[in-house]
Design a protein that fits this description.
The chain is an all-alpha fold and 161 residues long. 75% of the residues lie in helices and 0% in strands. The longest helix is centred in the middle third of the chain and has 20 residues.
C-alpha cells in the first residue's frame, strides 16, 4: 500500500508547496510527511545533497511511483478481494469505486499512466472478479461502442461511478 500512499503524498505536495520555496524547505515538508521507514531512509540518504528535495523525490518516484508497478499493485489488491456474486450490489459498488480510484491515480501520472490505462490485460484480469452475467453486460457495452481492446477507462465508465 506504500505506492498508493506515495502517489497521494506526491499530489498533495504539488498542491501545497509554494513554487518559489527552497529545496531545503520542500525537503523538510516532505520528510515531515513520510511515514514508512524505507521512504524515510531514502530521504535521509539525500539530506546533505545540494538538491535534497529533488533528489529524494526522484528516488522515491523511481521506487514507489512507477505507473506499471502502481497499477499492478492495485490490481493485485483487487484480485485478492472476494469475487463479486450476482446480486451483490454493495460488493459491486465497492469494486467499481476501487477501479475508478485506480483510473484516477493513473490519469494523474501523465503519459506513463495513460499507457497503463489502455492496457487490455488489466481489464481482462479484473473482469474475472465479476459474475458471468456482468461480464456479458460489459461485453455488450463494448460492442455498442465498437471500440477495440477495452481500456481501464472503458471499464470505469461502464460502472457509471
Amino acid at each position: 500500500m506504500i505506492q498508493g500512499s506515495f502517489s497521494r503524498l506526491r499530489l498533495a505536495l504539488e498542491n501545497i508547496l509554494p513554487a518559489d520555496s527552497t529545496e531545503r524547505f520542500r525537503y523538510q515538508v516532505l520528510c515531515d510527511h513520510l511515514k514508512f521507514e524505507e521512504a524515510l531512509l531514502i530521504a535521509d540518504s539525500y539530506s546533505n545533497s545540494p538538491c535534497p528535495y529533488s533528489d529524494t523525490m526522484a528516488s522515491l518516484i523511481q521506487t514507489y511511483g512507477q505507473p506499471h508497478q502502481l497499477s499492478l499493485q492495485r490490481i493485485a489488491e483487487l484480485m485478492e478481494e472476494p469475487t463479486i456474486r450476482s446480486g451483490d450490489t454493495a460488493g459491486f459498488r465497492k469494486f467499481a469505486l476501487r477501479v475508478r480510484a485506480l483510473v484516477g491515480m493513473l490519469e494523474q501520472l501523465g503519459e506513463d499512466g495513460r499507457i497503463e490505462l489502455r492496457c487490455g490485460s488489466h481489464v481482462a484480469r479484473l473482469l474475472r472478479k465479476l459474475p458471468q452475467d456482468l461480464r456479458a453486460t460489459f461485453r455488450r457495452y463494448l460492442y455498442s461502442r465498437r471500440d477495440g481492446v477495452p481500456s481501464l477507462m472503458d471499464f470505469a465508465e461502464w460502472f457509471g461511478v
